[in-house]
Design brief:
The complex is a heterodimer of chains A (293) and B (263). By secondary structure, chain A is mainly α. Chain A is 73% helix and 3% strand. Chain A has one domain. The termini of chain A are far apart. Chain B is built from 10 helices and 10 strands. Classes of the chains: A mainly alpha (293), B alpha/beta (263).
């Protein structure tokens, strides 16, 4: 029973971490609180769902479709909103407010196209096999969700630490001016970050949609709240913090459902978050709460 | 001429910070840029490196018009700089700080890191070697793996020079490189700068320490209130009455004023 909950918590936490990574990347590198990240997450879920229903693509191809759609959304997000505001030296609140507007635009457009009702993946599209390992049951689907989340996080962490582009991104997060003067194409990297962060959010959207089998226009809202909480818990802009925060929330939710009751899930999870913030107001990796100019 | 600023003016709204400043840095030159606080020296650097756009005038570097170009492109053309207040990446190691600056010159593609090959390994090892050599040059080889934020202030300034050199510049702009250094450190810095100069690098240096700059530079340009008031050899500049007046009139910098006193 405990081991089973552990598996559930890891898979849910992995998805939260994935979502939070995208959110924290945009904050860390572009210095923007991107409140449209939840809408991009929803867009990912819809893209995969319609790739399965309309194009009859297999699940993995549908996830790829979601990556392409949300990556393109990230490109547009920077091109149409972040870049023009950057060029005008807009104060910090302007891009944040713009992303609220974008989030509303996206979710109501999706509602206009596909309706407000809850959509589901066709049963035959989802793997139903179950693995049994020493009394723990895990479905293929869960296993794939966990694997995908972990592989993506692993690649990202490795790239940030070891590669040229990763180093450039970390430099950019600390000082865009210094980065530009070292020959780094700052504008190009800002756009790249927006694409990367959005597609991470998009993948998280598909995974949650598969996990809960529910796709609806406002599905990004609760996720956005969780994402913000996770990122604040981890320390704004801190990658390790987002990972740890994501898993913390996953564990808190799963274990409060298991041992306290499902109606109390959010109350317990967010109560714990609040308690931790009382102890560490700057988050777990608190140095990064403020963006250094 | 390697670098030529022609009648550069810069104003912020109604505030005129530079007025028709023209100056040149010859190939393999070592030019000092001096003037009292607020004279517009750092503004000149910001204009050259594309952080600011001139209101009027042109900036040419090796036959290339720089104004209107993005900072990173200017760097890639061969102009590097350091800052008056260090701008290092504190959360990265000293080595990584230097590697960041070498990024755009690497001879492997960004995507190739996902498929490791012998060629990639060699290229990356070569990069590390060059970075280590640069750190050795500024005396930081044994602190390569330290977080840059943990370095002493003087070491941070030297790391910033190594990082600027890593971009492969032809012209290096140093903004008060000797600030906060003691006499011994200043002498070491001067030796380092002269070595760089011998290795074909051209330099434009802002510095408040008059002895330092007068010993180092063959050519000196003086700004006061955004205007160029003198240029020439250290002796010519020291003898220029307008320069002496600009410094002597300022009680906030008595130490500097003494340099101009007849001895």
């Amino acid at each position: 029973m405990l081991a089973q909950q552990f598996i559930n918590a890891i898979s849910l936490g992995g998805v939260y971490a994935l979502f939070a990574l995208g959110f924290t990347l945009i904050f860390g590198v572009l210095g923007i609180v991107n409140l449209a990240h939840g809408a991009v997450f929803m867009l990912g879920a819809y893209s995969a769902l319609h790739a399965v229903i309309l194009l009859r693509l297999p699940l993995m191809a549908a996830i790829l479709a979601a990556i392409v759609t949300t990556g393109a959304a990230g490109w547009l997000l920077d091109k149409l909103i972040f870049a023009p505001l950057r060029a005008r030296d807009a104060p910090h609140l302007a891009p944040m407010i713009a992303t609220i507007g974008l989030a509303i635009c996206l979710s109501s457009s999706v509602e206009g196209f596909f309706g407000a009702q809850n959509l589901r993946f066709p049963v035959e599209a989802l793997p139903t096999e179950t693995l049994s390992l020493g009394g723990i049951r895990i479905t293929w689907l869960e296993l794939q969700i966990v694997l995908l989340a972990f592989v993506l996080m692993g690649i990202l962490m490795w790239c940030l630490k070891q590669t040229r582009i990763g180093r450039a991104l970390r430099g950019l997060a600390e000082s865009p001016k210094a980065a530009a003067l070292l020959g780094i194409d700052v504008e190009g990297l800002f756009r790249f970050t927006s694409v990367l962060a959005s597609l991470l959010g998009g993948v998280a959207g598909v995974l949650i949609a598969l996990y809960t089998n529910a796709v609806f226009p406002l599905m990004g809202q609760p996720m956005l709240h969780k994402g913000i909480a996770v990122v604040i818990l981890g320390g704004m802009g801190d990658i390790r913090g987002a990972l740890l925060g994501g898993f913390f929330l996953g564990f808190a939710e799963v274990f409060s459902v298991a041992y306290i009751g499902s109606t109390m899930r959010d109350a317990v999870a967010f109560g714990l978050l609040f308690a931790i913030l009382l102890l560490r107001p700057d988050g777990l990796f608190g140095k990064a709460t403020q963006r250094r100019a | 001429m390697m670098l030529r600023l022609s009648s550069i003016s810069k104003h912020f709204g109604g505030l005129q910070v530079l007025q028709e400043v023209s100056l040149t840095v010859p190939e393999r030159g070592i030019v000092g840029l001096i003037g009292p606080n607020g004279a517009g020296k750092t503004t000149v650097f910001n204009l050259i490196t594309g952080l600011l756009i001139p209101s009027e005038g042109t900036i040419d570097f090796l036959g290339q018009r720089l104004n209107g170009m993005a900072s990173y492109q200017i760097t890639r053309f061969g102009v590097a700089r350091t800052f008056q207040n260090v701008r290092i990446f504190r959360e990265m190691s000293v080595m990584e700080n230097v590697l960041v600056a070498m990024g755009y010159q690497s001879n492997y593609s960004a995507a190739s890191v996902l498929l490791p090959s012998p060629h990639l390994r060699r290229a990356q090892r070569r990069e590390q070697e060059i970075a280590r050599e640069l750190l050795f040059k500024v005396g930081l080889a044994d602190q390569a793996d330290l977080l840059a934020g943990k370095l002493s202030y003087g070491a941070q300034r030297r790391m910033e020079i190594a990082r600027a050199l890593a971009t492969g510049p032809k012209l290096l702009l140093l903004d008060e490189p000797a600030a906060g250094m003691n006499t011994v450190e200043k002498q070491q810095l001067m030796d380092e700068i002269l070595k760089l100069h011998e290795s074909r690098l051209s330099l434009l240096i802002i510095e408040h320490d008059m002895r330092f700059i007068m010993n180092l530079c063959k050519q000196i340009v003086v700004l006061n209130f955004g205007r160029l008031i003198a240029q020439g050899t250290p002796d010519e500049v020291r003898a220029n009455p307008e320069v002496v007046a600009a410094y002597l009139g300022r009680e906030d910098e008595p130490e500097i004023a003494t340099v101009f006193m007849p001895s």
